[in-house]
């Protein structure tokens, strides 16, 4: 993950996405006023050791920021440079005679007298609402999400007044309302929270859900889906048991009552929260969803004290910097999700108190380090870790000397899923990767592993001694092998790399400088996705052994300066039988996709082929390859300065069927910046609607211009003869 530059909260300079603790402390000493906005937890000594900023924002108006009205006793905000608030005559006033209201936007009148944006509905003079062009009465603003309702929403909720029943935060919810999803808003002590009611008894109690939203439904014989299928996890209930499906694993989270009530689920997903009450009144809560509230920077230490039965907690995609102390008193907690919490620096030693924890997900949060007490969570079955690493070498002086204890996995023997993401240039990882890989090799139940092996020998030792690999239970893996480097700008499009990571068995071999190791060939025999990145010796993929690619679906090649062909002369027919996606970038010596035209039947499942910046390539496909490419849907050729044609004919004429049938599934042919391209070549004839051509000055669309001119001439003569006979 490339660090994103952000503006420093203390002065006008840029920094990376995580401010170094030393820099934070230095600036806080220079600006003591900011301590009023810090949130700390634990003892006073702990707070002094780790100073945390709760927000990057300046003081808000409610915190006495901005200029105030000069009228004695008035604390309202000054409008413009007038020195007064609106009530005392500040700002610009409507020019209509007798009107004292403020003007709207950049106009000279208030809304009542035609100022600002006016509703576009005929004969309506009311102001347009929000970013729309209509007033509320004529459809402006957000609409109620209840089925068939077109009324405006109420008080920032998803429903109108008719479909929302306001209840207090502490009001109990009866059992007959358990099929209704709760929609929450920012709550302060003593406030109210609108809860939508169903339109009819026959309506299915499932609302549209985004990331992490839960659908509360009564128990049925079939598995009731509590989460949308497209999300990264799914919560469901069957036979009074709450289940979690995550990364093809199923976790029995807890036994629950016959049906979940709204008191059992606290759902505050994506509500733009910035503040929560000090304590929660959901005393019987089992599931708590707080994710996707990117303004939430702090949770009171006592918030979870009234939730002793909580078993599932998701705080992903928030800006919390310190976990509340009451969280570590949740002795029944089994699932803790903290994905993409970019402001979270580390976990406290109190994490050891969560003795029943089975799922700990910190992917994307990029912690500074992990406490030694993590090894006391012996019941963990699913653990995903992500560590921060700086691009600037000078930052290491301010970071912890090690990421995690080398033996932290020695007592966690039940692990089934383990992912560890680190900065590729972090020398701290190079020191501990080998002992950690040895402990992973002992895990017998491991079914999914994501790991970075800086050395090929380390990878070879792991494959030889890993019991889960040898038994075949490690069915999902994402391996990076070789000394990786951090690239500020990748030469491969993001969507291509994302497609690579979506495969269940992937191998990335980077910066190889020797012959192909046997261990790489052995792993490729099980892989479905292969990324060959900057290998200095390989001249063809045939050197890996074509037979090892029998299950490969995705192949990506980048910056391999010696590769001359993808399939060499010695390859047999039918290579890459399952390959669907082949992407080639910056292979400067590449001359052939398939070196010999006699190697037929290759790439039968190929749907996408991309060739980019291969300066010695003169053509892409042999004409004899076209019959086997019956599934090809997209062909992209770009920045190849020597390409003269896309399809080249062999010396001996190949018998082919009608050209239009050669690539029956081809929907898109992209040709970009090919200065020497003249024609598509023999065997390939496409209509213009399938072509996307740019920067090809010599290109002639018709591959057989002479034959086409003869056909046109004959048509003209026939039409002329018919006209003369008619006369």
Observed structural traits:
four-stranded antiparallel sheet; disordered N terminus; alpha/beta; about 725 residues; 30 strands; 8 helices
Structure description:
The chain is α/β, with parallel strands linked by helices. The protein is about 10% helix and about 15% strand. The protein has 8 helices and 30 strands. Strand 17, helix 6 and strand 18 form a beta-alpha-beta unit. It is globular and about 95 Å long.
Quick rundown:
Helix content is 12%, strand content 17%. With 727 residues, the protein is of the alpha/beta class. It has a 17-stranded parallel sheet, sandwiched between helices. Strands 5-6-7-8 form a four-stranded antiparallel sheet, with no helix packed on it.
What is the CA-CA span between the terminal residues? 77 Å
Q: How would you classify the helix and strand content by structural class? A: alpha/beta
Compute the gyration radius: what is it?
Answer: 32 Å
Tell how many strands the DSSP assignment holds.
30
Number of helices: 8
How confident overall, as mean pLDDT? 76
> Which outline best applies?
globular
Question: Beta-strand percentage?
Answer: 15-25%
The residue fraction in helices comes out at 10-25%
Indicate the low-confidence ranges by residue numbers. 1-17, 23-64, 165-230, 703-709
How is the main sheet built? 17 strands, parallel
């Amino acid at each position: 993950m490339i660090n994103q530059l952000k503006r420093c909260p203390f002065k006008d300079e840029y920094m990376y996405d995580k401010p170094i603790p030393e820099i934070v402390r230095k600036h806080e000493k220079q600006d003591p006023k900011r301590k009023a906005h810090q949130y700390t937890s634990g003892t006073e000594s702990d707070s002094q050791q780790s100073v945390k900023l709760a927000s990057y924002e300046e003081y808000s108006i409610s915190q006495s920021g901005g200029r105030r009205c000069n009228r004695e006793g008035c604390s309202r905000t000054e409008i413009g440079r007038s020195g007064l608030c609106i009530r005392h005559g500040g700002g610009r006033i409507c020019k209509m005679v007798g009107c004292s209201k403020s003007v709207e936007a950049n106009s000279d009148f208030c809304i009542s007298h035609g100022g600002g944006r006016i509703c576009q509905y005929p004969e309506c003079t009311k102001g347009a609402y929000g970013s729309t062009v209509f007033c509320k009465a004529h459809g402006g603003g957000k609409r109620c999400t209840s089925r068939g309702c077109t009324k405006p929403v109420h008080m920032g909720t998803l429903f109108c007044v008719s479909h929302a029943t306001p209840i207090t935060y502490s009001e109990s919810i009866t059992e007959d309302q358990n099929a209704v999803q709760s929609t929450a808003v920012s709550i302060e002590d003593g406030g109210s929270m609108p809860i939508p009611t169903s339109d009819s008894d026959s309506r299915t109690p499932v609302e549209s859900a985004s990331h992490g939203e839960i659908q509360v439904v009564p128990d049925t014989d079939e598995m009731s889906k509590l989460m949308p299928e497209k999300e990264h996890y799914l919560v469901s209930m069957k036979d009074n048991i709450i289940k979690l499906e995550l990364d093809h694993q199923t976790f029995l989270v807890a036994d629950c009552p016959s049906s979940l009530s709204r008191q059992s689920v606290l759902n505050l997903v994506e509500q733009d929260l910035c503040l929560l009450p000090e304590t929660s009144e959901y005393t019987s809560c089992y599931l708590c969803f707080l994710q996707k509230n990117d303004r939430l920077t702090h949770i009171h230490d006592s918030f979870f004290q009234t939730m002793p039965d909580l078993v599932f907690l998701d705080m992903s995609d928030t800006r919390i910097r310190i976990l509340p102390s009451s969280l570590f008193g949740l002795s029944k907690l089994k699932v803790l999700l903290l994905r993409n919490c970019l402001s979270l620096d580390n976990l406290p030693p109190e994490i050891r108190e969560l003795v029943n924890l089975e799922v700990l997900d910190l992917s994307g949060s990029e912690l500074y380090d992990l406490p030694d007490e993590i090894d006391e969570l012996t019941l963990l079955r699913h653990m995903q870790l992500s560590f921060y690493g700086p691009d600037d070498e000078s930052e290491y002086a301010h970071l912890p000397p090690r990421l995690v204890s080398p033996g932290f996995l020695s007592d966690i023997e039940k692990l089934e899923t383990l992912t560890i993401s680190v900065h590729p240039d972090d020398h701290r990882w190079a020191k501990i990767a080998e002992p950690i890989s040895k402990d992973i090799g002992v895990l017998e139940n491991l079914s999914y592993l994501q790991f970075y092996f800086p050395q090929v020998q380390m990878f070879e030792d792991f494959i030889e001694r890993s019991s889960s690999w040898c038994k075949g239970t490690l069915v999902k893996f994402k391996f990076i092998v070789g000394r990786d480097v951090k690239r500020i700008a990748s030469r491969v499009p993001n969507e291509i790399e994302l497609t690579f990571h979506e495969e269940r068995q992937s191998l990335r071999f980077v910066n190889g400088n020797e012959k192909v190791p046997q261990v790489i060939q052995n792993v490729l025999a099980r892989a479905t996705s292969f990324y060959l990145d900057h290998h200095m010796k390989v001249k063809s993929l045939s050197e890996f052994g074509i037979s090892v690619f029998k299950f490969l679906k995705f192949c990506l090649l980048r910056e391999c300066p010696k590769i001359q062909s993808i399939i060499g002369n010695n390859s047999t027919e039918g290579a890459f039988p399952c390959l669907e996606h082949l992407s080639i970038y910056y292979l400067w010596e590449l001359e052939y996709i398939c070196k010999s035209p006699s190697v037929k039947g290759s790439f039968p499942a190929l749907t996408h082929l991309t060739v980019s910046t291969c300066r010695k390539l003169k053509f892409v496909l042999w004409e004899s390859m076209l019959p086997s490419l019956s599934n090809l849907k997209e062909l992209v050729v770009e920045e190849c300065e020597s390409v003269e044609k896309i399809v080249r004919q062999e010396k001996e004429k190949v018998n082919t069927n009608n050209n239009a049938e050669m690539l029956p599934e081809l929907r898109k042919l992209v040709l970009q910046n090919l200065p020497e391209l003249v024609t598509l070549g023999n065997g390939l004839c496409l209509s213009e609607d399938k072509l996307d051509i740019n920067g090809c000055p010599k290109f002639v669309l018709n591959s057989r211009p002479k034959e086409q001119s003869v056909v046109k001439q004959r048509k003209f003569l026939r039409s002329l003869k018919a006209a003369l006979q008619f006369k």
